Amino acid sequence: MTKFSVPQMSCGHCKSSIEKGVASVDADAVVDVDLTSREVSVRRVSNTEMLIEAMKSAGYEAHVLS
Fold first, then answer.
1. In terms of Cα–Cα distance, which of 58, 61, 27 is closest to 42?
2. pLDDT at residue 47, as a whole number
3. Where in the numbering of this chain does the HMA domain appear (predicted)?
4. Spatial distance between the Cα atoms of 35 and 39, rounded to a whole number of angstroms
5. How far apart are CA 8 and CA 26, in angstroms?
6. Backbone angles phi, psi at 41, to 5 degrees
7. Reduced DSSP (H G I as helix, E B as strand, rest coil) percent helix, strand, coil of the chain, to 5
8. Close Cβ partners of 17 (under 8 Å, ≥ 6 residues apart)
9. Res. 46: pLDDT tops 90
10. In contact, 4 and 61? CB cutoff 8 Å
């Protein structure tokens, strides 16, 4: 599992955009979005850099936590 910090994420629309972005890179990934902590956990990461780019394309800067 890889965790990302997504500081700009704050609402359900943000959550949906992040989930769609991750799905565009890895349709089988399991995504857990925590709006309170502004963290996204992804299981089955195929390529971390591609996930960061997908979130960036959705409008959100993301940084790997673990």
1. 27
2. 84
3. 1-63
4. 7
5. 22
6. -110, 135
7. 35, 25, 40
8. 58, 59, 60
9. no
10. no
